[in-house]
Amino acid sequence: MQVPYKMNDSAVPVITLDGPSASGKGTIARLASQALGFHYLDSGALYRLVALAAMQANVDAHDEQRLADIALHLDVVFSDTSVWLDGKNVGDEIRAESCGEFASRIAHLPALRAGLLDRQRAFRKPPGLVADGRDMGSVVFPDAVLKIYLTASTEERAHRRYKQLMDKGISANIENLLQALRERDERDSNRALSPLQRSGDAKLLDTTCLTIEQVVDKVLEMYAETRDKASGDA
Ligand SMILES: Nc1ncnc2c1ncn2[C@@H]1O[C@H](COP(=O)(O)OP(=O)(O)O)[C@@H](O)[C@H]1O
Ligand SMILES: Nc1ccn([C@H]2C[C@H](O)[C@@H](COP(=O)(O)OP(=O)(O)O)O2)c(=O)n1
Description:
One of its GO terms (molecular function) is dCMP kinase activity. Residues 15-223 form the Cytidylate kinase domain. It is an enzyme of class 2 (transferase). The strands form two sheets. Strands 2-6-1-7-8 form a five-stranded parallel β-sheet. The longest helix has 22 residues, at 212-233. It is 50% helix and 14% strand. It has a single domain (15-221), classed as Rossmann fold (3-Layer(aba) Sandwich), CATH 3.40.50. Strand 4 (83-85) and strand 5 (88-89) form a beta hairpin. The chain is of the alpha/beta class. Helix 2 crosses helix 3, helix 2 crosses helix 4 (97-106) and helix 7 crosses helix 8. It has nine helices and eight strands. Bound molecules: adenosine-5'-diphosphate and deoxycytidine diphosphate (YYY). Residues 21-22, 25-26, 43-44, 47-48, 100, 103-104, 107, 133-135, 184, 188 line the site of deoxycytidine diphosphate.
């Protein structure tokens, strides 16, 4: 397990991007982190990795203790281009819709979420971090300097996911994707612990009519404004 950065975490700026499935969180967080030279945390990948490991070991979605145990002992390595679980490249496997679905079904379990907390916070290292997920701004990094709630209409998100799957040569059906997105949004938003919701201090960024480049520019602009304000206040 990685050792958390301990010296003075609050001095390391964090930008959080939370939002529903296929809103573009991963794409935008990765590009913004590259532009700023920051580290990047794809927290959804951790939930997907627990889901994959659990599916491979035939662990029941209700077996909180075993799932928490998997979360605590995940042997995972993130590289720029992929993710390695127990020494095996599982980058494509964790992106499967079935894996995202299983991740969403187990993500309400408190012991599992607790088991991933330190691992997520360990990504906070100088010079800064961009983190994406559902509860990055509300629970994992409540002192983030910039919190964004990224969203887009359900139809646009289904269209984006459809195109993404087709580009990878995976067949998909837009109606099924729409239905799956609605179910996942519903489950992620209505769980008791760390639900997907826009917290009061998160800035809303609706990307329905924006290109990827426009969204990245907007995030960088928001971050520059936050820094200007902080230096003006000092
Ligand atoms: N503003 C945008 N306009 C068009 N396509 C986008 C936009 N943002 C993201 N995408 C595309 O949508 C798909 C889903 O994005 P992704 O980053 O995986 O979303 P999330 O992490 O929220 O599930 C990807 O193929 C990505 O390239
Ligand atoms: N911070 C997080 C990240 C993901 N999850 C859960 C809920 C999500 O449906 C699954 C998969 O997340 P992921 O961000 O990879 O999914 P999408 O790319 O948005 O489709 O994991 C969570 O509960 N908290």
